[in-house]
Write a structure and sequence with these properties.
By secondary structure, this protein is mainly alpha-helical. 41% of the residues lie in helices and 0% in strands.
């Protein structure tokens, strides 16, 4: 019975749409930040102690604290300064509407990266649950209690 329930649960998870590959940091956000912000926030030049060249530096934040709050666009300082056109500086190339959309979608959907998992206070994604169920099912460690 337990294996049947686990199998049905796994099948349901498999038919759930997968996370879009284009919403990963490396799929577009990184290139935008390097192009539009790299002059001041690169590995060589970390103005305000903020690097925007890789996911770890973005998540580390800078002098003002964290700049990206996954799934919370309005709480993310990076989005605030981009949306309010405070950054990049006026004498630098500005982000296009499409570039802004890529960054806002990335933050709204969890600020995911292919490099490291992002801790989130939100409900675990179906991928997290799927891994948990499959690992437990395959190792016979899953315990089902009667409710």
């Amino acid at each position: 019975m337990c294996r049947s329930l686990a199998f049905v649960f796994c099948i349901l998870l498999m038919v759930t749409p997968s996370f879009a590959d284009d919403l990963f940091f490396e799929a577009g956000v990184q290139a935008i930040l390097l192009d539009k912000c790299g002059k001041c926030h690169s590995a060589k030049s970390r103005k305000a102690d903020l690097g925007l060249y890789d996911i770890r530096s973005v998540l580390r934040g800078g002098e003002s604290g964290e700049v990206v709050v996954p799934e919370q666009l309005e709480e993310s300082l990076l989005w605030e300064v981009i949306h309010n056109q405070q950054m990049p500086p006026k004498d630098q190339a500005q982000l296009t509407d499409q570039e802004k959309k890529v960054i806002s979608d990335w933050i709204k959907h969890g600020a995911h990266s292919q490099q490291i998992p992002i801790a989130s206070t939100a409900v675990p994604s179906y991928l997290d649950v799927e891994r948990l169920v499959l690992n437990a099912w395959c190792s016979n460690d899953m315990v089902w209690e009667n409710a």
